[in-house]
Every structure is written in structure tokens, then in C-alpha cells.
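Re: the request from the purification team.
They wanted to know what the chain is likely to look like in 3D before they choose a buffer screen. I agreed to run a prediction and write the result into the notebook, where they can find it.
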Amino acid sequence: MSAEKPNYNEVKHQLQIEQSYLPKPYEKKGSDEIYDNSSSVNGKDFVIGAFVGGVLGAAAALLLAPKAGKDLRSDVVSQVNGLKIKSADYSSTVKEKATDLTQKVQEQSSNLVEKAKSLKSQTFTPPTDDGTVSSEGEEPFDVMETIDLTIAEIEAEEAKLAAEKAQASEPKA
């Protein structure tokens, strides 16, 4: 058994060549930003999770406790009665807050309705010229006629200027 030990450098070089042909995982840079926000847990989710966990833990503790059946049932009944009392208290406070909120909303909405009615009752005259272009109530515009009139006016002014120039250049007698 005279097997030669492989040269470490040769084996390392062969592994590097083989690894270069292996497929590489696809990495899209910049996409991690999208997933960072969705993995964060806000306070509301934490509180809900803690509450559900507490309820499940309490139920498991009651059911797995080494007590006699009568003792366990009496504990469950007392816990249920306590939960009924607490839920009644919470529901009454929620009802009170809801009625207060509805009263405030009704008062504010009635104030808004009164303001809207008062603004509507005021006489408001819209501006006569709002800066927009409109062809309603205007005569049709003939481009060629306007050009002809403009040319005629310019020719008349040129003739007038030429006549004045001729009069100014004549010797006075």
C-alpha cells in the first residue's frame, strides 16, 4: 500500500476549476430594499400576538395542570366569569366612547352643513372674462379679408407719407 498522497496545491487547483463550472445563484441587487419593510413587525401585530399567546398559554396551563377534575372545572368557571365581567366593562366603555364620538361628529357635520348653506345663499357673480378663449357669441373670423384690409391700410399710409414728402420737397413760392 504505497499510495501517494495527493499534492495539496494540485487538488486545490482542480477544485477551483470544477467549482467555476457550477451554476451560481442569481442575485438581483437592489431588490432587498423591497422586502426589508414587509418583514418589520409593528406594535399592533406584536400586541395581538402577545394577547393570543397569553390566551393559549393560559388555556394550556389550565388543561395541563395536575388538578382534580372538580378543581379544574371550578377554576375554569371562575376564569370564565371573570372574563364575562371584564368584557362587559370593556363593552360599556366602548359604547360610551362611541356615543361621545357620534355626538361630536353630528355637531361638526351640522356646522359644516350650515356653513355650506350660508355660502350657497350668498350672491356670487362670476367674472365676465375668465381668461379662456371661447368662440361663443363671436363673429366668424376671415383671415384673407383681414390681410387684404391690413395691406390696404399700409398702402394708404405709404401714399400719404409719399405725398407729404413730395410737398415738403417742393420749393415754396
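For the purification team: The radius of gyration is 47 Å.
Please add any questions underneath this entry.
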